[in-house]
């Protein structure tokens, strides 16, 4: 099933680009029907235009009442016949005015292993805290920020000397891989949500390598 996707961006749009690229190569079964931003200068708009995707700009400053802003987004998404919404660096909190009409059909990507480091500057929070495993999360969106059921997470190592930029680049590279994958699972109708737990039907359950950073050394590695 092809999902009719709307993507909301506020900034550079590199995750949007990753989605566009996967759609183009035929590995993500989605039709990006519209890209909407709240920031007129967002580079993500340029990326969308370059890909021939319809765009819209809804400046939040023009809407003193947050719910009115949300209603305008819903109107545009419905007009574009969007079924599913991907937030890709969209820096506005959505209210029930948005989330009720799209209940269970909004996902977000966040640059940490939630529930660690929600909110702004997650890369800086992780580098500053000195975590050894950082990462990123694709999750369904609910009324609480960076909170809904988790579809996929990727861990990346953090090293001594990392700052928000070096660690952020390592995280971002994984964001570009897991976001299209999660959307493809949704397009394939393989994602089931029960309370907070998400099952990806048919996904492997391999334990993989038990990952520590730094790696365990002999004899602690056995
Ligand atoms: C990403 O780090 C994403 O996780 C966060 O905002 C950033 C957006 O980057 N929500 P881009 O606009 O996709 O390049």
Describe this structure in words.
- The chain is α/β, with parallel strands linked by helices and 222 residues long.
- It has 2 domains: 1-103, Formyl transferase, N-terminal domain (Rossmann fold), CATH 3.40.50.170; 109-222, 3-Layer(aba) Sandwich (Rossmann fold).
- The chain has 6 helices and 9 strands, in the order βαβαβαβαβαββαββ.
- The chain has helices at residues 14-25, 43-50, 66-79, 96-99, 122-129, 164-187, and strands spanning 3-9, 30-37, 55-57, 84-87, 106-110, 133-140, 150-157, 191-194, 197-200.
- Strands 3-2-1-4-5-6-7 form a 7-stranded mixed β-sheet, sandwiched between helices.
- Strand 4 (84-87), helix 4 and strand 5 form a beta-alpha-beta unit.
- The N and C termini lie far apart (44 Å).
- The model has no long low-confidence stretch (mean pLDDT 96).
- Bound molecules: 5-O-phosphono-beta-D-ribofuranosylamine.
- 5-O-phosphono-beta-D-ribofuranosylamine (GRF) is lined by residues 9, 11-15, 44, 88-89, 109-111, 172, 175.
Give a summary of the structure in a few sentences.
The protein is α/β, with parallel strands linked by helices and 222 residues long. 32% of the residues lie in helices and 23% in strands. β1, α1 and β2 (30-37) form a beta-alpha-beta unit.
């Amino acid at each position: 099933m092809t999902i009719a996707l709307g993507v909301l961006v506020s900034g550079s749009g590199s995750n949007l680009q990753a989605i566009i690229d996967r759609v183009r190569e035929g590995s993500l079964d989605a039709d990006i029907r519209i890209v909407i931003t709240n920031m007129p200068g967002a580079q993500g708009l340029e990326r969308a235009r370059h890909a021939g995707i319809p765009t819209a700009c809804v400046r939040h400053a023009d809407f003193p009442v947050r719910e009115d802003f949300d209603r305008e987004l819903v109107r545009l998404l419905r007009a574009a016949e969007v079924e599913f919404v991907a937030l890709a660096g969209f820096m506005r909190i959505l209210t029930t005015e948005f989330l009720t009409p799209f209940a269970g059909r909004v996902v977000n990507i966040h640059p940490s292993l939630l529930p660690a480091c929600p909110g702004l500057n997650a890369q800086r929070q992780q580098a500053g805290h000195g975590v050894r495993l950082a990462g990123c999360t694709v999750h369904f969106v609910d009324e609480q920020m960076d909170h809904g059921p988790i579809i996929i997470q990727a861990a990346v190592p953090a090293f001594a000397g990392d700052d928000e930029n070096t660690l952020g680049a390592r995280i971002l590279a994984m964001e570009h891989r897991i976001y299209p994958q999660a959307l493809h699972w949704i397009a394939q109708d393989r994602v089931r949500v029960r309370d907070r737990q998400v099952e990806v039907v048919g996904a492997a359950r391999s334990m993989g390598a038990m990952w520590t950073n730094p790696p365990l050394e002999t004899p602690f590695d056995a």
